[in-house]
Amino acid sequence: QVLLTESGGGLVQAGGSLRLSCAASGVTNCDSKMGWYRQAPGKERELVATISRGDRIYYADFVKGRFTISRDVAKNTEYLQMNSLVLEDTAVYFCNARSFLFGTEYWGKGTLVTVSP
């Protein structure tokens, strides 16, 4: 059974920082591409960043230079360090895993990030 559990969301002022964590079980970064998505109120879910085998990393343009995705292999946990947060970063952030073999996707329940003025 695959379980992705996000944590670290909360309320932060614009310009501040947060670090999100995603503890994974049933999947690893060796067999799945791990990533973060977000969904703002009234908007579609969008890709934020992914990390794959060999630490291949992708960032959406709107977070480049501000967010950093990383992983701790020993803890089977991925992180999203978010700096210089802006109001538009307010969203529910979801952890995602997509298996290399079958392309099966798994989602966490999400963690809410609210950026205040």
Summarize the structure.
By secondary structure, the protein is an all-beta fold. The protein contains no helices and eleven strands.
How would you describe the overall organization of this protein?
The chain has 117 residues and is mostly beta strands. 0% of the residues lie in helices and 56% in strands. The chain is built from no helices and eleven strands. The chain has strands at residues 3-7, 10-13, 18-25, 32-39, 46-52, 56-59, 67-72, 77-82, 91-99, 105-107, 111-116. The strands form two sheets. Strands 2, 4, 5, 6, 9, 10 and 11 form a seven-stranded mixed β-sheet that branches. A four-stranded antiparallel β-sheet has the order 1-3-8-7, with no helix packed on it. Strand 4 and strand 5 (46-52) form a beta hairpin. The mean pLDDT is 95.
As residue ranges, the low-confidence spans are: none
Give the biggest beta sheet: 7 strands, mixed
Shape: globular
Residue share in β-strands: over 45%
Q: What is the helix tally?
A: 0
Mean pLDDT: 95
What structural class should be given to the helix and strand makeup?
A: mainly beta
Radius of gyration: 13 Å
Please give the oligomerization state of what you see: single chain
Number of strands: 11
Element-level helix/strand string: EEEEEEEEEEE
| Helix content, binned percent | under 10%
Distance separating the two termini: 40 Å
Topology of this protein?
Layout: E1 3-7, E2 10-13, E3 18-25, E4 32-39, E5 46-52, E6 56-59, E7 67-72, E8 77-82, E9 91-99, E10 105-107, E11 111-116
Parallel strand pairs: 2-11
Antiparallel strand pairs: 1-3, 3-8, 4-5, 4-9, 5-6, 7-8, 9-10, 9-11
